[in-house]
TrEMBL record:
Matches recorded under SUPFAM superfamilies: Clavaminate synthase-like
Keywords: Dioxygenase, Oxidoreductase
Protein name: Phytanoyl-CoA dioxygenase
Alphabetical list of Pfam families matching this protein: PhyH
MF terms in GO: dioxygenase activity; metal ion binding
Amino acid sequence: MMQALQAVRRTSTRRCLSAKPAVGHSGHLSADSLKNQHDAPDLGLAMSHKHKYLFDLNGYLVLRGVFSPDDVAAANAAVDAHADTYHERTGQLRTSGLYGRESHALAGDGARGRLDMGGLLAWDAPHNAVFRSMLNHPALVPAMTELMGVGYRLDHSPLLLGMEKGSEGHTLHGGAITEAGEPAWPLRYECVGGQMRNQLLTACLQLTDAPAGAGGFCAVPGSHKANFSIPPALADLADDELAEHVVQPAIMAGDVLLFSEATLHGTLPWTLDHQRRTVIYRFAPAGSAYGRGYAPEWPAAMLAGMSEAQRAVCAPPYHPRMNRTCLDEEGSAVAPKPREAWKVEFDEKVFGSRYF
C-alpha cells in the first residue's frame, strides 16, 4: 500500500514540475502565459513610483493641476447656475455632532452647516461636462486603475460640498478599524505583491483654493493600515495629543484628491471668506459595491449623452472577465474580448440567460 502511494506521489511531483500550471476558474495567476483570456487586460497604465509610495504611505494623494483654470471656471459657473439646489445640513444632520457626541473643535461658529448639492452628472450640457470628465480623465485613469484595478466603477452619485466661513467641520470617520474594534471590511485597503487595492476610493475635485490652515479635508496619515480601534477623542479632535496627528493638506482649485475610505478622515471648520467647493466621487473595483444608486439603474438623465467610456465607469458591479468594457490610458473605452459562442450557448441552455 505504501509503495503504491509513494509511486503516485512521485508521478504527481513529476507532473507538477514538468507540466504548465493550469489556470483556475478565477484566473488569478498573473503571468501573461497563465492568464485566462477573459481576465482583465493589461492596459499598460502607469502610476508613478512616487505617487504609489505616497498613497501607500499616507492613504491619500493630491494630484496637482488636473483641471485647467478654464475647466474650474466652467464648473463653478455651473454650480452658480444651480445654487438654488443647495441643501444645508441643520439640526440632526449637522456633521460636527455625529454618533451622539458634540465636538467643540469641529463646531465652527455653531450655526452654519454644510451645504450639499447632488445631480451634477444629470445637468444639461455644458454644465455637466467637467463633472462627467472625472469619470475617465486621462490624468486620473492610471491612478484609479492602479488603486482599484482594471474596470473600476462609480459607486456613489457625486456630491458637491459647500462651506461658508464659519461652517462646521465633520467628525472624523472611515478608518481600517471601527470604534467598536471590528475590521471595516467594506472600506478595506490592501497591498499584496506590489499591487494596491481599495474597496472604496474617494476622488475629490477641488473647485476653490483650500490652502494649509483654511479648513476642509483632513486625515490621519497612515491610518488606512491601522490595527487598533479609533479613539473617540481622536474622531472629535478632543485630545491634543491625538489631534496633532491630523493633517489638513493644501488642495488648490483644479487639484484632485484621492483617498482610501480606510483612511481616517473628516473636515475641519472653514475659515476663509470664499466658499469652499469640493465635489466628491466614490469609486470601487469592478466587482465590488458599497452604494446602491446604480440599482436597478442610474437615473436616465445622468447617463444621457455620456460617452461609451463614461457609461462603462457607471456599469453595475461585475468582474472584467464577464465582458466588461475598460478604459485605456487616454480614458477611451476598450472593448472586452467576448466569451466563446459555445460557452455562451451552453450557459443559456443551463441558466436561461447569457450570464449567471
